[in-house]
Each structure stands twice: as structure tokens, then as C-alpha cells.
Amino acid sequence: MDEAVEMATALSRAGFSTVYCTPHMVRGAFEVDNATVLATLASLRTELSRNGIDLTLLPGREYYLDEFYADHLKDPLLLGETRYFLVEISGSLQAAFIKDAFFRLRSAGYTPLIAHPERCRLLDLPAPPKKGLNALLNTVNSKLKTHNSEPDKASLLTYLREIGCAFQGNLGSFSGYYGERVRRKAGKFRAAGLYTHYGSDLHSIRQKDILSIVGTMQV
């Protein structure tokens, strides 16, 4: 609780007035039920009020996309009063499974909000069109691909955009917290207008320096 209050203080000082609290839901690792999440959130709200910290806390969860995801569609903890279903894509999944899962989420009336797509190796933007000999070689290489090849990252991202998914970038990605490759990819996604939301991804008070990037971004 002490660390949660310290993190809330840092968020308030950084200029935030409302925060969605989104603990992980990962089968076999983080399985606290929704009732416990809401009860703990209520306790934290009381503690913030007692300490005079003016920060509105709203509930949510970050669901891990795996073979158990359908179980969470029965009674998900969405972001506040929205229809946003925050979800993290496992890098070990097949593109076909991901497409089917997000189609089902959309069909159930939810708007999938994909957490930190810049950190997902399965997602990327289409490469600029090639010309001349490079274009010919690219066509030949495409025809030589087998079913065991890595999925087409660009087509998967395009599909998720077309069905109406939203995308949340991590603020730490822009500061290099997750490495240079992720930093470059996040910049590319932002320049392309992919992001609809941003999140702190704070798990610990040790990450509070991430909040300093807010002052350098128009988000």
C-alpha cells in the first residue's frame, strides 16, 4: 500500500488527474478475481483521500491473450465505464489465432485495446514499396515462403486496425526503457498515427522516471 500511495503521488505531481488501474490477468501467474481487484482499489482510494492526494482511480485489467482468453469474455473488468478490453498479445501465438480472438472480441461488443504493440514482435507497419530489381527480388522471396515462415507482421497489424482495434503505447517505450529497438518502433508507430491511447505501464515506484517523458510529448 505504501508503494501504491507513492506511485499515486508521483502520477499526481506529473499532472495526471485520473488513472486506470490495470493489474495483469494471466492464467497460472496473476489470477486475482475481479472482486478482489475492486476491493483493493476501494482501499487505495480511501488511503489516497486520507493522504490528501487528488487522484481519481478507475478499475480495469490487462488480459493476456492466450488459449484461456475466452473465459474472460463472460465477465471482464473493462476500463471504467468504457467498452475497452485491454489485452496483451503473447509473442508465441499464430497470426490466425490472434485474428480469430480479436474478431470474437469485436463480435462480443468490446473494443480491443492492444497494450504496447511496439513491444510485440508479431506487429509492424508495411514496408515502403520497393522499386526495380529490389521489387522483383521481393516478389520472388514472397513466393518462396513456406507455411513455417514467420507471420506477415504488416498484414496482421493492418487487419487489427481494419476491424476497429485501439492501440496503447507505453510511455517508457519512447524513453528507451525497453531498449533501442522498441524505442525506434514506437516512434515509427506514433509517426504513422497508430496510437489511440498511451499508458505509463508503471509496475513499481522504481519506474517513476518514465513519467518525465510526458513533458516532451503532446499526448
Task: Note the overall shape.
Answer: globular
**CATH architecture heading of the domain at 62-214:** Alpha-Beta Barrel
How large is the share of residues in beta strands?
15-25%
Roughly what is the average pLDDT, rounded to an integer? 87
- Count every beta strand, where a strand is a DSSP E run of 2 or more residues: 8
Verbal overview:
The protein has 219 residues and is of the alpha/beta class. It has a domain at 62-214: Alpha-Beta Barrel (TIM Barrel), CATH 3.20.20.140. It is built from seven helices and eight strands, in the order αββαβββαβααβααβ. β5 (84-89), α3 and β6 (111-115) form a beta-alpha-beta unit. α3 (95-107) packs parallel to α5 (153-162).
Task: Spell out the blueprint of helices and strands.
Layout: H1 2-13, E1 18-21, E2 24-25, H2 34-50, E3 56-59, E4 62-65, E5 84-89, H3 95-107, E6 111-115, H4 132-144, H5 153-162, E7 166-170, H6 171-175, H7 180-191, E8 197-199
Parallel strand pairs: 1-3, 2-4, 4-5, 5-6, 6-7, 7-8
Helix pairs in contact: 3-5
